[in-house]
Amino acid sequence: MYRKNAWNALAEGEKAKLEAFSQKYKAYLDAGKTERECVTESVRQAKEAGFEDLNAVLKAGRQLKAGDRIYCNWMNKCFLAWVIGENDIERGMNILGAHIDSPRIDIKQNPLFENSGFAYLDTHYYGGIKKYQWVASPLALHGVVCKKDGTTLTIAIGEEENDPVFYISDLLIHLAGDQMSKTAAKVIEGDALDIIIGSEPLNGEEKDPVKAQVLSILKDKYGIEEEDFISAELEAVPAGKCRDVGFDRALIAGYGHDDRVCAYPSMAAVMDYEGTPAYTVCAVLTDKEEIGSVGATGMNAMYFENIMAEIVANLKGNDSPLSLRRCLANSRMLSSDVSAGYDPNFAGVFEKNNASIVGYGVTFNKFTGSRGKGGSNDCNAEFVAQVRRICDEADIAWQTAELGKVDVGGGGTIAYVCAKYGMNVIDCGVPVLSMHAPWEAISKVDLWNEYKCYCAFIREAKEFVY
Predict the structure, then answer these.
(1) Does 1 fall in a domain?
(2) pLDDT (tens digit per residue) in 122-160
(3) Which strand ranges, in their side-by-side order, compose the sheet holding 232-238?
(4) Domain that includes residue 53, residue range
(5) How far is 259 from 431, CA to CA, in rounded Å?
(6) How far from 206 is each of 76, 214, 219, 309, 365, CA to CA, in Å?
(7) How confident is the model over 80-95, as pLDDT tens digits?
């Protein structure tokens, strides 16, 4: 099936809007290199856009009404925003759901050690990564240190021009004969991802003098003791800001496109909604997708259902569980997540007729999973037809894809988790090159069509009568 390059489908004057939106997205990507930072930035933008904190509304005992704009910060790891619609909440919502965690290298709880003149942080990688991609490149440390006295220190070191960066060493090519004969999975082992954080000894210190020097700096500059690492969440991520790619600046390279390239447009579509929608619209930015949507902040947790129970009870004036069930079952959702961009350098793993082509617009994945569609949602054809109509009527460049050739690989999203309520869900995002690498690449025109798609969906999607 022929699809036109999305750059050629832009209306007159649309390219300037595309570029302006890309700049906003780049700023969000740079501000949010961790899930906590994404939530902080999302809350800031929500307040600026006139959204009220749901908890404050409930605490004040005020009843929500059509047109109200509210948000919720869940454990500093998840962000949700709604514009309340005119229809009874039992008729469902139009939902955009993305995740804001990305593959990275986490610092262990007892991480600090010295070896042969170097001070290191011991690590445990998070999510699916090619470990060899994370060595011999500048890294930044982001996260929080929570102290016993109840104070929390926010850490972001390695992003400013005069900041130090951190480093995982690799073996020089001159001595790498045995290393080069190993498979890519074994070239760098997980236990070799120790991060160099110092190499100068502390004067007069006999035992572990380099470690002692680092601890001295941490105490003097940040008030951090070694034991404080136990209650810290520190993440090593690529240092530096995202950048335009190519002479034409048509691509953006940066850390965390998966899945912040879907999270930001999802949030922006809800925040930019003008007027009062027919159906309540909702953006859900969740955590822990890269490790199975687990834990108290993953989509498998009860937080979304619990928060919706509060909203439904407030709107209905009762806490009937049936009203909540009807709301969730009648909802419609785009699981806003990325797809594997077709890469001509690695054409053999794709089936091109069913691949996501960079620059050809937003991508719908009817199913993800792996081999035999295991672990996928596999959206109903009726819902696929509805999103086709919405995109065509809004002049959106769109395509369909699956994640590589049959039996080659696969992956999952939050779609199957939300579908358990009975709601219609389909995966919808943009093609990404080098997915899960420290630096990924996406097309600005795909990002723009994704945002337009999300805006059209929350405005036009309607409940089904089967």
Answers:
(1) no
(2) 999 999 999 999 999 999 999 999 999 999 999 999 999
(3) 152-157, 139-146, 232-238, 104-115, 118-126, 195-198
(4) 6-102+255-460
(5) 11
(6) 42, 14, 19, 60, 60
(7) 999 999 999 999 999 9
